[in-house]
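Lecture notes, structural biology module. Today: joint structure prediction for complexes of two components.
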Amino acid sequence: MAENSSSLWMVSPNRMRLSRLLRMSRRDVLLGGMGTVAAGGLVSAQAAEPDAHGSNVPGQPSLLSVNDPLVKQFLDLSHRLTDRDALDEWIAAALCTNIVQSDAKRKEQLQGMHALLEGGKFASASDFARAAEKHDPAFKDVIHDIMAGWYRGVANGKVVVYRSALMFDITKDAVYPKTYAAGGPFYWTSKPPEVDPPKGQPALSPSKFVVEPT
Amino acid sequence: MSSENLSADVVIVGSGVAGSSIANELVRAGISVIVLEAGPRVDRQHFVENFRNLENKPSYQEPFPSVPWAPHPPDQRTPNEYLHTTGPDAEAYQQVYLRMIGGTTWHWAGCAWRYLPSDFELKTRFGQGRDWALKYDDLEPFYYQAEVMMGVCGPDPAVEDLGSPRKQPYPMDALPISYAAQQFRKLIDEKTPWRVVHEPQARNTRPYDNRPTCEGHNNCMPICPIGAMYNGSYSVYDAEAAGAKFIPNAVVYKIERDEANKLVTAVHYLDPDKGSHRVTGKYFVIAAHCIETAKLLLVAADEKSPTGVANSSDQVGRNMMDHTGVQVTFISGDKALWPGRGPLETNVIDNFRDGEWRKERGAYLVHMVDDNQVDLATQMAIAKGYVGRELEERIRYLAAHTVRLFSHNEALPDPNNRLTLSKTRKDVLGIPHPDVYYKLPEYTVRSCEHTRKVFRELIGLMHGTDEQWTPGYFPQDHPSGSTIMGVDPKDSVVDGHCRTHDHENLFIASSSVFSTVGTGNITLTVAALALRVADTLKKELNHA
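The predicted structure, tokenised, for the full assembly:
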């Protein structure tokens, strides 16, 4: 038996992602409303076939440089939309690359949103998000992409970062990213921190979201 | 045809918990064993990497891609690329499982329930379904042997009696439950007539069998990253160390019998390049998972047995059962729980596992799942429209307060719920895909309705909001019944020792022999039945 066929089970996560995207599941369609998977994402996923182990695969757009003007604009938008001053520029470059690959309109939309940011004064992420959706309803999907990128570590249906996703940063006093627990024996029996009900309001119009069975 | 000489005292098809544990027992008794596994040899670390790179983390099947010659269902979606389900409740039977060395326990949660004595006597006690061709007491010593093999932790029966009489204590002390589960148990104790018990688990609460103590990575499904949870691969390694021969990528398609059609003489397998190989033996065990076992017996139909091997009863592929699930996710209005600290499934409401009402409706158990909800909370908060600081505080709140409940509801054996071979879809070796027709028994539907009422009460007690019910019914991946056990060869496939009625040296070790499905996860009972098969084989071979 050929050696390659015996190791077929070791397909890469990218290939699994491709396979899943092409199946276009019910969940994906639902999440599509959140901008996580758009029709353009399918096209670029096909173009990325077979495997992208890095940025230099033929037919695969290169990872944008941290000095690329678009990455700088993306980082400006990200700072504003996360209310955070310090974000990693390498992660920004990887997220930006994947978000741009996911949809043919994203580059222009990011530039348009950046122009909006530059042209006004916005005191908070919520202020800017409200203004952006009002300016162009399609910006909501772009903001969702940026939020999912930084907080979930996911862009273009792909895990760009796992442990460094901000959702784990803001919960690190209570839980660990799965597979990375480090709390000592039976840490889970102790009392975790209390969390008061939040008072903040949504900035964007709501999108449909359904919890799928596991 | 290959000229190699493949022969052993016992030939086993399938390398999951059942096949590997039989192999280990036999080879250590000086009996030669060959195990044929359709899928590849795999390793844990690659699955851990796949999981970390998986966008849809709750998809337990996706880190385990199948190979073309041994396809398994890629997910629980209907229509499915491999397991085709039809009928009024097709989606309720969209099972997932794995075809690879070690089997489906690569992604189980380690829940290691013994069945209740009444589960084996459903017909006698409640007038429903069937009785098994064995009693709880017949299986009790093998339950204990399986618990020792897997390393099961559980409560002291003097303190917390789970209803299945024990002659020995659990091999390890019960796993201390999480803060979230403690609060849930307190609520149930104070506000309801029910109770929350420690779930018995094949998970180390101390170093055991050269594997470490559980560290609470909260990733039992799809893959324990450190091997603190037992899976079938450990029995494979044990069996191999003792001299058992495991052949991966060996897809059995033919079961050869003698002239009288009473004794199996060989099985034939295809390798990925379609080369055919013949393996002879004295005894044969099919231990290939409920769905693949029935599929193989049907695929092996020939002139002597035109409806399939071991199928004179016409029951092969019938009586498909599962634990059907009801599931709800909601936001608790009480204090923070922070689920997801520790293992996934540790606590159960067990009051609905048994009672006189089983004359009317199926039993069930309830899990309050201890699943890390940070990713789900993030997706929900983004979908609600939060950004910036407001998003961060919302994620924290949702992650600390999201609760998920689900149930295992008992099915009944119905011959019309049937697995057949696809007439149109085949794998690369030309072997048909399985089709399953499924209609939920009314007995199960009534059970699920009762569960929904209980869940609504629990949501009220926890001041829950934003409840999201998983639509309809969903499979719990506990398929069973496809080669049903019974005393009468006319309406069952195997006897009480899991020996096929038709072929005296052919045994089946799988949940496919279950006559009823009870409520507890099926794996410990699969292992106990398998170890009992090993015991029978040892006696017969040593006697011979």
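Point to remember: The longest helix of chain B spans residues 523-543.
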